[in-house]
Amino acid sequence: MLKEEIQQRAGELFNEVTGWRRHLHAHPELSFQEFETSTYVKLVLDSMGVSWQPIAHTGVLAVIKGDLPSDKVIALRADMDALPITEQNNISYTSQNNGVMHACGHDAHTSSLLAVIKILQSFKHVFGGTIKCMFQPGEERLPGGATLMISDGALSYPVPAAVIGQHVMPAIECGKVAFRKGKFMASMDELKVTVMGKGGHGAQPQDNIDPVVIASHIVVALQQVVSRMANPFTPTVISFGRFIADGAINVIPDAVHIEGTFRTFDETWRNRAHTEMKKIAEGTAESMGGRCEFTINRGYPYLFNNEWLCDELSGYAVEYLGRENVIEAQQWMASEDFAYYSHVADSCFYLLGTGNEAKNITSSLHTSTFNIDENALLVSTGLMAYITLRRLGAK
Question: Do residues 48 and 121 lie in contact, with contact meaning Cβ atoms separated by under 8 Å?
Fold first, then answer.
C-alpha cells in the first residue's frame, strides 16, 4: 500500500535528511542573504537529477512531473532563512555563524522538502501532474520572500490548484500534526514611533518636555485600541518590544524611539486601527507639549487555509498518522508570509509537532535554545509526500 511504502522510504531517508538539516542548522543565513543555503539546495537537487531554476534572488524552484497523464499542479513550500539570534544550544551542529541561528525551524522545513522531493521522485510512476517545490528566501523580513516568489512567477505557468506548507511547533508533541480551517495566522504590521520633546537636566523637569514620559503614555494609551476599539470577537494584539531613551540617570533626552507590532484577522479593522493608532499617538504627544512621528510598515496579511483543501489534507493525515495524531490547531497570533500564497491560491498550512519533554526539547520558537526532536523529520517528509500523492490521485 502507498502509505506503508512511503513510511518505509521516509525511514530509509531519515539519516540523510537529518544530515541535511544539521548542515543547514550549522550554517544559517539571514533573510535575503541565503547564498550558501541556496547553493546547498541546488547541489542536493542536482544529486537527485531534479531540474531547478533560480528565483527571487536566493530562492530555488524545483519541478517534478509524474509519469501518468494529468494536468494537475501542486506547489510545496519551504522557507530557508534564519534569525539574528546567538545560539545557546550545546550540540554538535550548533550555528557556526555568530549571531545567526535557525531558531524558527526553517532548516527542518528545507531539509524536509528535499527529502519529500526524493520520495516523490521514486513514486513518479504512480502519479500524474506537476509538483512545484518552492525553496523560499526571506520569510522573517518584510516584504517577505513570498511576495518575490509570486512576482517572479512561482505560482504561474502552470498555476497550482493547491499550495501546501508546514511549520515546526515545539508546543505540539513530536509525532503529531495540527490543522485549522479558515483564518489561521494573524496579519502583521511594524510600528515605528519617534517622540520628540526637549531634553535637559533630570533635576529640572520644569524646563524640559520629557519624551520619556510622553512615550510611556503613548504605549499605555495605545492599549485601548485592543481593549476599547476592537471587536471582542476579532483577535487583536498590539505590543511594543523596543523602547530607546538614550539619556542618562540625570539626563532627559530630546527624543525617544519605540517599536512594536500590530496583529489582527480582519483587514477592514486593520485599516481603521492604523488610523486610530496614529491619531492616539500624535494626540497624546501634542497634549503633553511634544511631537510624534508615527510610521506603520504594512506587513503580511492574515493566513487563510482553504476549508475544503484543509479538510481533504487533514483527512489524508489521519490516513497516514492515525486520528489520534492529527489535532486541531488554535488560531495563532504569529504571522507568516505564506499568507500571501493563501490570498492568491487555495492553500493549506499546517503545524508539525517537534516537542519532546522527555528529551527536554521544549524551547519556544525564536529563542536561543530552540531545537527539534529530529524524529519529527520522519513525519515531515513522509506526510507531505503522502498528502501530495493522494492529492494527485495516487492510491
Answer: yes
Count of other CB atoms within 10 angstroms of residue 1: 7
395, pLDDT greater than 90? no
Q: Which of 34, 139, 210, 373 is catalytic?
A: 139
Residue 239 phi, psi (nearest 5):
-140, 140
Identify the pLDDT of residue 142.
96
pLDDT at residue 311, as a whole number: 98
- Residue 301, preceding peptide bond in cis (omega within 30° of 0): no
Q: Are 303 and 261 in contact (CB under 8 A)?
A: no
Give the active site residue among 29, 79, 81, 336. 81
In the residue annotation, 46 being an active-site residue is answered as no
Q: How confident is the model at residue 85 (pLDDT cuts 50, 70, 90)?
A: very high
The residue among 179, 155, 175, 153 whose CA lies nearest residue 166 is 179
Q: Where are the domains of the chain?
A: 2-185+302-391, 189-298
Helices marked H in the chain: 2-12, 14-26, 35-48, 106-121, 145-151, 211-221, 224, 267-287, 307-321, 338-342, 376-391
Does 139 participate in catalysis according to the annotation? Answer: yes
Specify the CATH class of 189-298 in words: alpha beta
State the CATH class of domain 2-185+302-391: alpha beta
| C-beta of residue 27 within 8 angstroms of C-beta of residue 97 | yes
In three-state secondary structure terms, 7 is helix
Average pLDDT over residues 204-209: 96
Summarised one tens digit per residue, pLDDT across range 146-203 is 999 999 999 998 999 999 999 999 999 999 999 999 999 999 999 999 999 999 999 9
